[in-house]
TrEMBL record:
GO terms for molecular function: phosphatase activity. This is Stage II sporulation protein E (SpoIIE). Residues 1-26 are annotated as: Disordered. It comes from Actinospica robiniae DSM 44927. The lineage of its organism: Bacteria, Bacillati, Actinomycetota, Actinomycetes, Catenulisporales. Residues 29-226 form the PPM-type phosphatase domain. Keywords: Hydrolase. The keyword Hydrolase applies.
Length: 251
């Protein structure tokens, strides 16, 4: 699993995720990445805060902090989403953040996710790529605009991941209007032989190039290859060709 991010005014840099959700070599930015390695159910999340300034970075910090605290307290994905929403309503100064939360069960291979107003993820199987159309809920903190303190109805949804599948989660910066001619689905398919680290770098690089190096928003990609649970069989022919990747461990 790997993630790459590019920010306005910068050519784009790679931040491989490690346990605990650190983004190596980069400060906290509007697009927040979190990876947590639990014993049997690792969890991943991507959040994207409103704006591009310091306030956006603070929003991302509040959202990621709330998600982390809730996860460590044993909350499920829906409860974590509620906590992130509550934190931004109370401390976000009318700001909001979209988010995608994902949990994988290494024992039985099942997976589940919550979408909070975030761009739809892409899934690839046997070389075919499609958008996962989730039940979309409001971004974290967005209920402030409706002047209500009631809990937003975040619900956990199941995700059909099979050994050899690739999952790609992006922020809306990957959908740059300056790169409207770029077919992201086709690009994901064409990078299927690359290791997730190289694939995520290629995806962000393509958007940067299509925008002539001038991004209007932060563009972040999280790329995950699912090899199955400990008891499942993986058909290596449908996954990444690791022979073309560098040998550094990024999982």
């Amino acid at each position: 699993m790997a993630a790459t991010a590019g920010w306005p005014g910068e050519p784009g840099g790679t931040g491989d995720l490690s346990e605990g959700g650190s983004q190596r070599g980069e400060p906290i930015l509007p697009a927040g990445l979190l990876a947590a390695a639990e014993a049997a159910a690792p969890q991943l999340s991507v959040t994207d805060a409103m704006g591009l300034d310091v306030n956006a970075a603070l929003l991302a910090t509040v959202a990621v902090g709330a998600l982390r605290r809730a996860r460590r307290a044993g909350a499920d994905l829906a409860e974590q989403a509620h906590e992130a929403d509550r934190a931004l309503r109370e401390h976000g100064h009318q700001g909001y953040a979209t988010g995608q939360l994902l949990r994988l069960n290494l024992r039985d291979g099942t997976s589940e996710f919550v979408n909070a107003g975030h761009p739809w993820p892409l899934q690839m199987r046997d070389g075919k790529v499609w958008e996962i159309v989730p039940e979309v809920h409001m971004p974290f903190g967005f209920s402030h605009y409706f002047h209500t303190q009631s809990k937003t109805g975040y619900r956990v949804q199941s995700l059909d991941l099979r050994p050899g599948d690739r999952l790609v989660i992006v922020t809306d910066g990957m959908l740059e209007r300056n790169a409207a001619g770029l077919d992201l689905v086709d690009l994901v398919a064409r990078t299927r032989q690359l290791h997730p680290r190289e694939a995520s770098r290629a995806l962000v690089g393509a958007v940067v190039d299509a925008s002539d190096g001038h991004l209007c928003d932060d563009a972040t990609v999280m790329c995950l290859d699912w090899h199955g649970s400990a008891h499942s069989y993986r058909d290596a022919a449908t996954g990444a060709d690791l022979s073309s990747a560098s040998h550094r461990n990024t999982t």
